[in-house]
Amino acid sequence: MNARYLPYLLILPVTLFLCLFFLYPFILVAQQAFSVDGGWSLKNFEDVIGYWKFPISFQNTMLLAAAVVPVQLALALLMATMVNRMKKGRDLILYVWTIPLGISDLAAGIIWLAIFEQSGFLNSMMQAVGAIDRPTNFLSYQNPGIVFLAIALAEIWRATAIMLVILVAGIGLIPKEYYEAAEVFGASPWKRFTRVTLPLLRPSLQTALVLRVILAFEIFAVVAALGGTLFPVLMGETYAYQFDLLNNGAAAAMALIILAISIAFTLIIMRALRVPKGATI
Amino acid sequence: MNAQTQSSGRFLYTASVILLCAWVIVPLYFLLINTLSSPDTVNSFPKSFVPEFDLGSLQFFAGFAGMLTALKNSILVAGMTMIMSILIGAPAGYALSRFDFPGKGLFRLLILLTRAFPLPLLALPLAVMFIRTGLDDTVFGLALVHTTLAIPFSVLITFSLFSGIPLELEEAAWTLGCTRLTAFTKVVLPLILPGITASAIFAFVISWNEVFAAAVLTIENRTLTAFLLQNLDTSPLHLKFAGGFILVVPALIFIFAVRKYLFAMWGIANR
């Protein structure tokens, strides 16, 4: 086998696969979104955006991402720095902290349902300490704040682990000498964190944030398990268009809107956290 | 810094580590209590904070019409995804780590691009395409979509694994009379196998957990996640909790199995 063609032969399966199941459906979804009865049209978008549920589901998705992602970032950074200086039991602690990585959003929603439902553990605890007489139904339309809180907690619980893993791996790549040098010059632990860790962690922060923010816009099953129809989000509306309303064109338009938001935020994050040219660890 | 602030600092540190561990484990424990309690207890109030080790909920789960089929479908889809994503992804990972070729940058861009897309959304047009080709509502069709989700990871992970094995090892094998293929199977493959297994498990978990595409693409042959989602409004609490528990268990085992590779995989895949 000629070595010049070997790499192309090796990447051929992936390329074909992605063309067939990634690029091609992407073109199809765009076609579907921009056509009505075979003609080119923006009607699908007008319908979708004009629907009364669109502003609220857009707002809910954005608010949730804005509430969840910063907390996750802070928590993941805290956990990663704590693990970094750990000597005993590091592997065990890391295993425990990364457990949610393997747990699906649907399962996470169900887990937090066990806590927040009417006969659930939060009510049981509150009754045990005498705060309430009768269990309250937290997840109802009367308590929109608690529904939001439950969903946000479930998301933070579930998806901090992915950021943690990326950040721990990133911190592991920073040479110890930088810390030693900073210590020699009398930098406090906080200074070392802000002046050494954070700047050198930029590529990992970028990856972690992009991945997390995109997944935050895709939130769906956690909401379905905890809020049901009380808390409409973009992805849930897409699902409803496809299934309950059987409107493929509208579902495709929603898909493109979510896609556009994801791309916009990816670009913003990449730009905000870009690594200066020529700077490497 | 005096001894007192140091020891109180250490106390604070240990306390936060324990608190964060509890934050992860306690909700899981609550799910366990509900799963190992009888249906009546699950629907009663107040809840006890120790499980009563009653298998009633799990029996109800197993006896619920269509549930075991859904479980079987989930395993099948995840198994197929695992095999396909490794068979298709690993050669590309090898090519990226060993060769410099024109178009490499473009190829990496394609891979990274897939990570920046809300991929489950692609299930929508695929639903139409699958109806035309007869793949609609089949386990294999869904596995194809899940493979698309898993492939970027399997390429990047195998790329980082292969990069960890020095080219010199292969070159030594070539000078000792191995061809490119035998050098690969006799030298590289044994070294890489545990890592490949880890990334295969990762692919399994991605597919096992996926909800949206599974719910869109299957109707009769629902996977466990799709089945649970579809019945969220109507199913009783004990069914939800038992189902959630069954969803969580493999994840716990798998994360434990791949924990050594988790960080190495992400560390290099980042660059």
The structural class of chain B is mainly alpha
Low-confidence stretches of chain A: none
The CATH architecture category of the largest domain in chain B equals Orthogonal Bundle
Biggest interface, chains and residue tallies: A-B, 92 and 93 residues
Q: Tell me the Rg of chain A in angstroms.
A: 23 Å
Number of helices of chain B: 12
Secondary structure tally, helices of chain A = 13
CATH topology of the largest domain in chain B: MetI-like fold
Number of strands of chain A: 2
Beta-strand residue percentage of chain B: under 5%
Summarize the structure.
Chain A: One of its GO terms (cellular component) is plasma membrane. The complex is a heterodimer of chains A (281) and B (271). Chain A is mostly helical.
Keywords:
heterodimer, A: 281 residues, mainly alpha, MetI-like fold, two-stranded antiparallel sheet, 13 helices, globular, B: 271 residues, 2 domains, 12 helices, 77% helix
List strands and helices in order, with pairings:
The complex is a heterodimer of chains A (281) and B (271).
Chain A: H1 6-34, E1 35-36, E2 39-40, H2 43-50, H3 53-84, H4 90-98, H5 105-116, H6 121-128, H7 144-172, H8 176-184, H9 189-200, H10 202-217, H11 221-226, H12 234-243, H13 248-272
Antiparallel strand pairs in A: 1-2
Chain B: H1 3-35, H2 39-42, H3 56-63, H4 67-98, H5 104-115, H6 123-133, H7 139-163, H8 167-175, H9 180-209, H10 212-217, H11 224-230, H12 237-269
Helix pairs in contact in B: 1-12, 3-12, 4-7, 4-9, 4-11, 5-7, 7-9, 7-12, 8-9, 9-12
How would you describe this structure to a colleague?
The complex is a heterodimer of chains A (281) and B (271). Chain A is mostly helical and 281 residues long. Chain A has one domain (54-272): MetI-like (MetI-like fold). Chain A has helices at residues 6-34, 43-50, 53-84, 90-98, 105-116, 121-128, 144-172, 176-184, 189-200, 202-217, 221-226, 234-243, 248-272, and strands at residues 35-36, 39-40. The two termini of chain A are 38 Å apart. Chain B is globular, with a radius of gyration of 23 Å.
